[in-house]
Amino acid sequence: MAITTADAAFLEAALELAARGPVVDPNPRVGCVLVNDGAVVGRGFHRGAGTPHAEAAALADAGEKTRGATAFVTLEPCNHHGRTPPCAAALIDAGVVRVVYAAADPSHAAAGGAQRLRAAGIAVEQATDDITDHAARAEALNPGWTFAARHGRPLVTWKSASTLDGRVAAADGTSRWITGPASRQEVHRLRARVGAVVVGTGTVRADDPALTVRDVPHDGQPLRVVLGRSDIPSSAKIFDDAAETLVIPTHDPAKALEQLHERGIRHVLLEGGPTLAAAFLAAGLVDEIHAYLAPVLLGAGAHLLGDLGIGTIADGQRWHLDDVARFGDDVRLIMSRTSPNRPARED
Fold first, then answer.
1. Confidence check: pLDDT of 256 > 60
2. Which residues are annotated as a binding site for NADP(+)?
3. Which of 3, 89, 106, 242 has its CA 20 to 30 A from that of 218?
4. 3 state SS of 336
5. Binding site for substrate: what residues are annotated?
6. What confidence category does residue 345 fall into, taking pLDDT thresholds of 50, 70 and 90?
7. Where in the chain is the domain with CATH 3.40.140.10?
8. What is the pLDDT of residue 342?
9. pLDDT confidence of 230, banded at 50, 70, 90?
10. Which residues does the annotation place in the binding site?
11. Is it true that domain 153-337 has CATH number 3.40.430.10?
12. Which pTM value belongs to this model?
């Protein structure tokens, strides 16, 4: 629905508020602005799981000025009683007369807020076709949460770092460092945006990685996850007190993701070796790839990826190239899955 210029400005303010919320959280980043007689009377954003939702925070900020107000929210008000009461009910009780929201709630548990508001006689509008595309921008604030709400599992990003000839280690097993410091810093920024970093037991034994975010701003450390049944030395860095570590004794990617989803993890960074990456790819459980390519040639050593069971080029997995960036002498490629309705690029 088209919205007015004034509506657009208030939604912009709500988006700015939403961006203040934590990037990594089981819940989405949401902002809310309450307007009465053309003036902003309340502002709020979600500060993380267990805290008041954006609408509740804005209502508390507005106090007695909520009656007759319009609520501008980046996400459809929830209709679910979890740790906090439903926002749709709170808006009704507060005497709000109109609600304008950007993105629809894709979750099964919390959807239906707009319908509940309309049933209570409140005017409800979604900004779906405005020029500034508030709906898409609101979803972009929560890529992991939105994906998980729609698919019932975390978004999975595979990060790889390889030489020009597709090696991730030399013949003697050494792998530090294939890429340069600029690429490695960017990987830390990526870690800071996910809920969990996943590797296999082989990577822990071979590389003894810390799997923590270092030297870049971050709200907290991701959960360190190790998949597999092999023994891990108690002296491994993943068992230090820098971050929480979870060992999942399975090689089944789907079961692992199910367990992580139940823990509130919405975005997973896959940093394991060739075998683990192949298992996730073969299961169709990688959603995007961040591939770092270094101008190095080895000619021998471990390959980037294990066997996918593909015997002919026609069956090869095709990916869309979404972005190319340079970090020092390295190149990073960001790729997303090929949609069945969209052919792979041929340029």
1. yes
2. 161, 177, 207, 273-279
3. 106
4. strand
5. 175, 191, 203, 211, 214, 271
6. very low
7. 5-146
8. 38
9. confident
10. 53, 78, 87, 161, 175, 177, 191, 203, 207, 211, 214, 271, 273-279
11. yes
12. 0.89
